[in-house]
Amino acid sequence: MSNQLVLVLDFGGQYNQLIARRVRDLGVYCEVIPYRTSIDEIKSRNPIGIIFTGGPNSVYADNAPKIDSAIFDLGIPVLGLCYGVQLMAYLLGGSVKSPDSREYGRTKTDFDKDFILFKNLPETADTWMSHTDYIDKLPDGFKGTAKTASTPFAAIYNEEKNLYGLQFHPEVNHTDNGIEMLRKFLFDVCGAIGDWTMNDYANTAINAIREQVGDGKVLLALSGGVDSSVLAALLSKAVGNALTCIFVDTGMMRKNEGNEVEAAFADWDINFIRVDAEKRFLDKLAGVTNPESKRKIIGEEFIRVFESESKKIGAVDFLAQGTIYPDVIESGVGDAAVIKSHHNVGGLPDYVDFKEFIEPLRLLFKDEVRKLGMTLGLPDYLVWRQPFPGPGLAIRIIGDITKEKLDLLREVDFIYRDEIAKAGLDRDIHQYFAVLTNMRSVGVMGDERSYDQAVALRGVTTTDFMTADWAKIPYDVLESASNRIVNEVRGVNRIVYDITSKPPGTIEWE
Question: Of 90, 369, 387, 494, which residue has the fewest beta carbons closer than 10 angstroms?
Fold first, then answer.
């Protein structure tokens, strides 16, 4: 791509994806790369700026990630965050110290308003700290420009070498004016022009796909989720009916979802194949209660169904996948920890006769994928579809899976989502769904004793889905959903609301 580029060097911090998202949100394209990337490769990418992420290590640890100090002589502006600023100071001759007490969470911070990153911002504000070590002696040529009660150098810079550092995390919402500080680094220091727009990306991607595919044929496993739906739309714009989409309806989808997906692409210039495989999946899942076993069975059976259908088509030139940027990062970048392995990263399936992969969304975050979907003209109900796990409702039913349980949960989930939408909260709550708990409770319905299912409702707010807070849904909305579920869904007599954040819980129950 011809866009200006900022490189984010990954030192293992928990907010690394968020840093990249913030930069892109400000209209500047960036990529996360391993800290081991060579200086020559970094130079060849011609970035306008470099950001060092945080990380869990001490710069003095034997296994602490380091980088060639020659990076500071490239003339490219560098912004070090948390561990990144400590590493900068350490490599350039400063001193980093381990204090008796640590500094975590919201912290009152005093700023020098003459500093380029803090101009026109308040002299005192809260920042989000997450560190044990701190810089106690600056390298030659550096000045301190912010401090806290425990950290004498909460921000440092060397104007001559264009080197900047913040001990706190400007990328998180808890830091007052943090995004504005990043903006000043990008535009006032690096000279960014803000040339990263989704419309430009769509045009660039369409042209690149046409060039790559040529006269070839493309095959896509369309799940109905946001990523695969946006990918189908993008490929359709690029290659038209050279694209075949196989939509495997596992029977584990939400109410009306299969029909909605089919209707959404009815007028698109693609070959759309829908496979009704509900009975096949239910037979394989009969009696299975372990959540990991459910995942594996559904994943394996999906492959088998897709394999069977793709053989009817014959050889294709390209297998398209909806891999997005968090998939790549979470599956491990360089020495970064593998958070979870993603099925569509790094594996070459041997069950489809194709020549190579095509992954046009590989550089996009989820919110950017949604923006691309809107740019391409997909309907809102697909673009803003709730995140949905690959195994579907199978892992929102605790215990064994039956068609009766699936149908019951579909109705409960539909009512809950409908009430959230009617209250105008569907964009404010980032994920919400119902869980069939496999627990029965005594109730009274129609002056008679009942002994029916207990259902849990879940709602979370999050910026990156790596951490999440339980959503404070108004009581009247929960009340309305609860009343409707009990009155309209036979077999349910108790509703509970999950108020667990992530961590310690996860977003899904299984």
Answer: 387
Q: What is the pLDDT of residue 274?
A: 94
Tell me if residue 468 falls in helix, strand or coil.
strand
91-147 pLDDT, tens digit each: 999 988 876 666 777 889 999 999 999 999 999 999 988 777 888 899 999 999 999
- Residue 114 has φ and ψ, to the nearest 5°, of -80, -15
Contact 65, 10 (CB under 8 A): no
Q: Cβ–Cβ contacts within 10 Å for residue 314, how many?
A: 8
Burial 464-490 (b: 16+ CB within 10 A, else e): bebbbebbebeeebbebbbebbbeebe
pLDDT band at 325 (very low <50, low <70, confident <90, very high): confident
Rounded alpha-carbon distances, angstroms, from residue 197 to 130, 209, 229, 359, 364: 32, 18, 20, 19, 12
52 pLDDT tier (thresholds 50, 70, 90): very high
Radius of gyration for the chain, computed over Cα atoms and rounded to the nearest angstrom: 26
Catalytically annotated residues: 82, 169, 171
- Please say whether the dihedral angle defined by the alpha carbons of residues 146, 151, 154 and 160, taken in this order, is positive or negative: positive
3-state secondary structure labels for all residues of 348-360: CCCCCCCCEEECC
Q: How many CB atoms lie within 10 A of CB 1?
A: 13
Q: Is 403 exposed, middle or buried (0-12, 13-18, 19+ CB in 10 A)?
A: exposed
Domains delineated in the chain: 5-189 (3.40.50.880), 198-383 (3.40.50.620), 396-497 (3.30.300.10)
Question: Tokens standing for 307?
Answer: 């394999």
Asked if residue 504 has a cis previous peptide bond (ω within 30° of 0), the answer is yes
Q: What are the pLDDT digits (tens) for 169-216? A: 998 878 899 999 999 999 999 999 999 888 888 988 899 899 999 999
Q: Is the dihedral of CA 277, 281, 282, 284 positive or negative?
A: positive
The CA distance from 13 to 15, in Å, is 6
* Integer Cα distance of 10 and 84 in angstroms: 9
Residue with tokens 């106690």: 136
Q: Report the alpha-carbon distance of residue 40 to residue 188 in Å, rounded.
A: 26
- Answer whether residue 336 shows pLDDT above 50: no
Please list the alpha-helical segments (H only) found in 214-277.
226-239, 257-264
